[in-house]
C-alpha cells in the first residue's frame, strides 16, 4: 500500500497547529520567568514572526485566554485521575500536590485577572471530578459533611493559588508552601 499524499491544505493546517502550539509553549515558559514579556518577545521565543503570532492571537487578552484554557485542560486531566473507589483524602492530598505543580507552571495566569465568564464554566467542568470525589468522601465519613462540596473544591483551588502566590513573592519555598497547603487541607475539610 502507498501512503496517501499530503494535501496542501493538510500541510497548512499542520503548520498552523504547530505554530499555535509553539506560541503557547513559548508563552508559558517565557511568562513564567518574565510575566511582563512583550508579544514580540513571545513571538521570538516561539520562533515565529510577530505577524504569525498576531494571526493566532490578535492581542494579549486572547493569548492569556488560550493559556488559561491550557491550565484548565491540565487541571481537567489531573482531576479526571481521581479514583472513584477507595479512600478519597489520600487521593485529594496527591491531587493538591500535583495541582500546585500545575499552578507553579502557570503562576502568571493564576496571578492574572480572570473575567471571561466562558472560562468560569470551563473551570467548573474541569473540577467536577473533584466535587464528586469530595461528595464520595463525605459519604464515607472522610470529609466533614457540613461542607458544600463545591465550596470545598474551591478551597482546594484557593490553597493552590495561595501556595503559588507565596512562592511567587518569595515568602516561602515551593516545598514549604506544599507542606502548608497539606496542613491547611487537613484542617479545613477533615472532621476532627
Beta fraction: under 5%
Secondary-structure arrangement, i.e. CATH architecture of the largest domain: Orthogonal Bundle
Compute the number of helices: 9
Oligomer: single chain
Order of helices and strands: HHHHHHHHH
Give the helix level as a range of percent. Answer: over 70%
Report the CATH superfamily of the largest domain: Tetracycline Repressor, domain 2
What does this structure look like?
- By secondary structure, this protein is mainly α.
- It has two domains: 1-58, Arc Repressor Mutant, subunit A; 61-189, Tetracycline Repressor, domain 2.
- 73% of the residues lie in helices and 0% in strands.
- It contains nine helices and no strands.
- The chain has helices spanning 8-33, 39-46, 50-56, 60-79, 89-105, 107-110, 117-139, 149-168, 174-189.
- The mean pLDDT is 88.
Structure keywords:
single chain; mainly alpha
Q: Would you summarize the structure shown here?
A:
Helices cover 73% and strands 0% of the residues.
List the helices and strands and how they pair.
Elements (H helix, E strand, L loop, with lengths): L7 H26 L5 H8 L3 H7 L3 H20 L9 H17 L1 H4 L6 H23 L9 H20 L5 H16 L3
Amino acid at each position: 500500500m502507498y501512503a496517501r499524499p499530503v494535501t496542501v491544505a493538510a500541510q497548512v493546517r499542520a503548520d498552523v497547529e504547530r505554530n499555535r502550539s509553539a506560541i503557547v509553549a513559548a508563552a508559558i515558559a517565557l511568562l513564567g520567568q518574565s510575566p511582563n514579556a512583550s508579544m514580540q518577545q513571545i513571538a521570538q521565543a516561539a520562533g515565529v514572526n510577530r505577524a504569525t503570532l498576531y494571526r493566532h492571537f490578535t492581542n494579549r487578552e486572547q493569548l492569556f485566554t488560550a493559556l488559561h484554557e491550557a491550565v484548565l485542560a491540565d487541571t481537567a486531566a489531573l482531576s479526571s485521575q481521581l479514583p472513584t473507589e477507595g479512600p478519597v483524602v489520600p487521593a485529594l492530598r496527591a491531587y493538591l500536590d500535583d495541582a500546585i505543580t500545575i499552578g507553579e507552571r502557570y503562576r502568571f495566569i493564576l496571578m492574572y485577572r480572570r473575567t471571561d465568564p466562558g472560562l468560569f464554566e470551563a473551570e467548573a467542568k474541569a473540577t467536577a471530578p473533584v466535587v464528586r470525589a469530595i461528595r464520595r468522601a463525605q459519604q464515607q465519613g472522610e470529609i466533614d459533611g457540613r461542607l458544600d462540596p463545591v465550596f470545598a473544591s474551591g478551597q482546594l483551588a484557593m490553597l493552590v493559588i495561595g501556595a503559588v502566590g507565596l512562592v511567587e513573592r518569595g515568602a516561602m519555598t515551593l516545598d514549604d508552601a506544599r507542606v502548608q497547603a497539606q496542613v491547611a487541607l487537613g484542617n479545613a475539610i477533615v472532621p476532627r
